[in-house]
């Protein structure tokens, strides 16, 4: 016997950064972006900080590198996320 804990389904998230030339270098921070687990990628994604991101203007990273978006990191720590690798 033991305790039964009900867990919510984790969402899939990726780390993205806007491509070189889309914004200035100081704005190229790593954002945490939830994506649909199934189906097509939407035409516009929204980072956890609220920043709208067009998939064609972003690069998916395999880790946080460079400057992270502090708001995305703070909000991701409060969520149940499955990190896509």
Can you describe this structure?
The protein has one helix spanning 70-76, and strands at residues 11-18, 31-35, 45-46, 52-53, 58-61, 81-83. The chain is mainly beta and 85 residues long. The chain has one domain (17-83). The strands form 2 sheets. Strands 1, 2, 5 and 6 form a 4-stranded mixed beta sheet that branches. The termini are far apart. 16% of the residues are buried.
How do the helices and strands line up, and which of them pair or pack?
Layout: E1 11-18, E2 31-35, E3 45-46, E4 52-53, E5 58-61, H1 70-76, E6 81-83
Parallel strand pairs: 1-6
Antiparallel strand pairs: 1-2, 1-5, 3-4
Short description:
This protein has 85 residues and is mainly beta. It is built from one helix and six strands.
Short descriptors:
single chain; 85 residues; mainly beta; 4-stranded mixed β-sheet; two-stranded antiparallel ribbon; 6 strands; globular; disordered N terminus
Measured by DSSP, the beta-strand proportion falls in 25-35%
Helix and strand pattern: EEEEEHE
Rg from C-alpha positions? 15 Å
Which regions contain 5 or more consecutive residues with pLDDT less than 50? 1-7
How many strands, what sense, and barrel or not for the largest sheet?
4 strands, mixed
Strands, count: 6
| Tally of individual domains | 1
Distance between the termini: 35 Å
The amount of helix comes to under 10%
Mean pLDDT across the residues is 82
Structural class: mainly beta
Number of helices: 1
**What sort of overall outline do the alpha carbons produce when their principal axes are compared?**
globular
